[in-house]
Design goal:
transmembrane helix, two-stranded antiparallel sheet, mainly alpha, CDP-OH_P_trans, membrane, 9 helices
Length: 287
């Protein structure tokens, strides 16, 4: 029985190590004179790394094998699979023509991802029993990486494997820099852990399906994944803007609202810290 228990502790870490392998494989594909096919395969490898990263924490919670070791291993895995690998991939795919500027922006993506994970570890240490919350603090690094690889995969499918056209490096650089800043920002993104089957969630799901059908028929089915990632990014920005605006309005309404808003801000900061330091072997599914 004890041996079986020890083997169960290894299981979630195997998922994490497999995620590292996918990220390392993507890096090897991007090395040297990588062509469109190799870059497409590297994007697929990172996509599979997202799959394994999404299941390691769930497996740990299911088998009740959560550990601090798993939290640290998952963060290190994410730096490789969703920081270094996507940074090198987007440099080879689009940013190389920009020279040092492109190299620096690619590095900034990986560095901001590492900072994002370091902040998560600090919050996890402060709230070891917190979790199950509604928001992430900053854009989770797997979703930032997923946005990049979804664009590369979609472009490869829509363009028939043709390389990226000239002149696209600058827009891609702006997008990569924006994702890097979102990771280290305090913009709150929903975890959807509190989502329940009801009329509202069914309506949102139907709207997403309808939007996917429109994009697939009017443009290309490959761009549906990009649209989903973009919608999640926009949702966090809009909700954060509304949140800030509501607090500014509350402070202008009455002098006493300042004190109330300060208390609310403090409570929500504590809640967000708990949200970002979820339980489990590897914390939340997305760090």
């Amino acid at each position: 029985m004890m041996k079986l228990r020890k083997l169960m502790f290894v299981l979630p870490n195997l998922f994490t190590v497999t995620s590292i392998f996918c990220g390392f494989y993507a890096i090897t594909l991007c090395s040297g004179e990588a062509g469109p096919v190799q870059l497409y395969q590297a994007a697929l490898a990172i996509f599979f790394a997202m799959f394994f990263d999404g299941f390691d924490g769930r497996v740990a919670r299911l088998t009740k094998t959560q550990s601090d070791f798993g939290v640290q291993l998952d963060s290190l895995a994410d730096v490789i699979s969703f920081g270094a690998a996507p940074g090198l991939l987007v440099y080879k795919w689009a940013l190389a023509p920009l020279g040092f500027a492109g190299l620096f922006i690619s590095f900034a993506f990986a560095a901001c991802g590492a900072l994002r994970l370091a902040r998560f570890n600090v919050l996890a240490a402060r709230n070891p029993h917190g979790g199950g919350g509604r928001f992430f603090v900053g854009l989770p690094i797997p979703i930032a990486a997923g946005m990049l690889v979804s664009v590369i995969i979609s472009h490869h499918a829509a363009a028939g494997g043709a390389p990226l056209r000239e002149g696209a490096a600058v827009p891609v650089a702006v997008a990569v820099a924006g994702l890097a800043l979102l990771m280290v920002s305090t913009v709150r993104y929903r975890t959807f852990k509190d989502a329940r089957p009801n009329r509202r969630s069914a309506l949102v799901f139907m709207l997403m399906v309808l939007g996917g059908v429109v994009i697939a028929t009017q443009f290309h089915p490959a761009w549906v994944l990009v649209a989903c990632c973009g919608a999640y990014l926009a949702l966090g920005l809009v909700e954060s803007a509304v949140h800030v605006r509501s607090h500014l309005v509350a402070r202008k309404v009455a002098p006493g609202a300042v004190a109330v808003a300060a208390v609310i801000d403090e409570d929500e900061d504590e809640e967000d810290a708990e949200d970002d330091a979820g339980p489990g072997n590897d914390g939340p599914a997305y760090l």
